[in-house]
Amino acid sequence: MLTKETIERVLEKALSTGGDFAEIFVEDTMRQNVGVLDGKLDTALNARVYGIGIRVLKGTKCVYGSTNNDDIHSLLQMAENLAFAIGTESKSSSVHVEKREFVSAHPVIYVPASVEIEKKINVVKTAYKAAKEYSSDISQVQSVSLEWDSRIQIANSDGLLAEDRRIYSRLAVMAVASCEGENQVGFEGPGRRMGFELYEKTVDPVLFARDAAKQAVTMLHAKECPSGKFQVAIENGFGGVIFHEACGHSLEATSVSKGNSEFCGKLGQMIANPKVTAIDDGTVPNEWGSIDIDDEGTPGRKNVLIENGVLKSYMIDKLGGRLMGMEPTGNSRRQDYSFAPTSRMTNTYIANGPDKNEDILKSMQNGLYAKKMGGGSVNPITGEFNFSVSEGYMVRNGEICEPVRGACLIGKGSEILKKIDMVGQNQSFCAGMCGSSSGMIPVNVGQPLIRVTDITVGGRG
Q1: How does pLDDT run across 63-75, given as a tens digit for each residue?
Q2: Distance, CA of 291 to CA of 289 (rounded, Å)
């Protein structure tokens, strides 16, 4: 980490040509991945990421640079280059930073580096064995333990000096089922802001591995999904990826501040069914997408985005806030020091609603039950999306019937929000990685079981 004296000198240099805000972000991250493929150890990665990013703002103009050279002369030179990129006037600035202390809401028991690698190998081998032995149809299994331990320092010309430590652990299991040249894939990837205690407290490698294998085998023997407009029930957990992608990105200042969102100028308006309340909450203890402070040093917080169908808030970073005339919301995030931060989600979910889960399925006469969602794509300007269903079943007369594969859900974010007419009571999170202009970051998606009145289902049957 940099000394207080170095930080103040670099920030003063960054402001020397008229900038009104300067920031330093220092990162020191240790990563370890251990993986098994086809029963053999094929990954044993240890890596370190270290570097410094400097950002200068002048009004709504922004320049950013990064380096992994923390020599004071190198940092002063980069700060001077950024200063000249943002202005030409000569300005003398005096910067004084004071360290701000906070208590982490995400305690860790076993720091990854303190755990013997043999224990990590045992976890991935246990997961591999459970998935491989699930069925003779399982042709390939890959299981990987992923851990990283980041030490962060953030300082700015407003006087902030803060340090944070962020530890993440995740298990990823991919199972492939094969028969007569046909392959289907199942995946589970639970993760938390925890150390190795993840496997003692919340994640049983055997159960998650079997779930991945079950998904692959079920879809291998499933019929092709019919296409058309259907009533659709979307299960909890990763089902929330639809809200995340189709609506969440459109509520980030990254899009809203530039007028590139279908939800621009709609604060206070009814944009969803009254049963829908959507939240982004970075304060949930030990959750995968949680933060103590964001990457600008703003404390994490709970932001109600949609309340009973009414748009209440956007997710805002410092630069986006300047463009929008609004305060930051603790949503500024980045992959690492080489990226400038911008507004991003944390733990984003649809909250529990008034409907009983069993009533949701019983209410469906002819529809699709999307038990597991896969990946997809979305245009944040229009909100149009296309998502695959990785495990789906037809529903008839209130009963879950035969599995179907090849289904995809096609629609528009602003329309699907209004078509969610039943919201259940089993809200849960699911870990994922989200890519945007500031790189890949850990986020949670989530929701309870929901019902959509009608949506276009693409299929092959």
Answers
A1: 999 999 999 999 9
A2: 7
